[in-house]
Amino acid sequence: MSGKKTKEALDRRGFIKVVSLGGAAAAASVAPGLVTPAEAYDPGKEETKGRYRETDHVKAFYRTNGY
Amino acid sequence: MARMKFLCDADRCIECNACVTACKNENEVPWGINRRRVVTINDGKPGERSISMACMHCTDAPCAAVCPVDCFYTTVDKVVLHSKDLCIGCGYCFYACPFGAPQYPKVGNFGSRGKMDKCTFCAGGPEADLSPAEFQKYGSNRLAEGKLPLCAEMCSTKALLAGDGDIIAKIYKERVVKRGYGSGAWGWKTAYKETIAI
Fold first, then answer.
1. Residue B197 has pLDDT above 60, yes or no
2. Under CATH, to which class is B4-192 assigned?
3. Domain limits, chain A
4. pLDDT value of position A65
5. Over 70: is that where the pLDDT of A28 sits?
6. Which residues, in sequence order, are CB contacts of A51 under 8 Å at separation 6+?
7. Are A57 and B146 in contact (CB < 8 Å)?
8. What is the rounded distance in angstroms from the CA atom of residue B107 to the CA atom of residue B109?
């Protein structure tokens, strides 16, 4: 009885060892070239262009706020 | 080059909250978010003042400094905008902002608040100008239409000024000289590292 238990325990340990070794191997197999560094958001010129224009509408706003 | 700024003349603000309502309507801001709000200090006491507050589009914006995904960018007009495609809703910008401008559509913890939403100075976002995608995510782009933010344009007492910083500072100075007093340009020192002599 105790011999059977010991065998089961050994099988289980062996299984865990195999899984952990496989996981480590998988992690090591990721090629360094595939890991891309994080990049900051780089807005294009179109996104950051100036949209403000001193139109008649805007001039009227400035004028009426002077009162 | 014009530098866009907001200025709230606290001596004129009557706490009508029309700027808040106009902003919500113009930009179809979701439930639970107010891009602009009116703060009253010393309520009911002598010296009571109301200030309309939103994103001040800071020079060296603290929200951009703490963003872990760098989703903020500043336009040539010095309007601080962000990309909702990149935002992860972490909430760091909310804690960094001295004006409490960043808002979230949902109540939750890290990452479950949804995409951050804030005042865009009515300048839209990274999508093509005046496109439906831009409107859906960021609201209207009045700057591209040759207009200024609606909150300031429809202020009944002309308390809220928006536009070229030099011009609105001049308007404010003229008002202060004319009436002989002024409560200062609230938030200017925090946002733009400068103040207006009164």
1. no
2. alpha beta
3. 1-28
4. 94
5. no
6. B75, B77, B123, B129, B141, B143, B144
7. yes
8. 7
Of A41, A3, A16, give the one whose Cα is nearest residue B83: A41
Is A59:B11 a contact under the CB 8 Å cutoff? no
Closest Cβ opposite residue A58 in set B69, B144, B146: B146
**What residues does each domain of chain B span?**
4-192
So what's the ipTM on this one?
0.91
Q: Which amino acid belongs to residue B98?
A: P
Q: Contacts of residue A54 in chain B, CB cutoff 8 Å?
A: 2, 164
pLDDT tens readout for residues B28-61? 998 889 999 999 999 999 989 999 999 999 999 9
Closest residue in B to A40 (Cα) is: B70
**Three-class DSSP category at B190:** helix
Distance from CA of B146 to the nearest CA of A (A): 6
Query: How far does the CA of residue B172 sit from the closest CA of chain A (Å)?
Result: 8
Chains A and B form CB pairs within 8 A to the count of: 67
Tell me the one-letter amino acid at B197: A
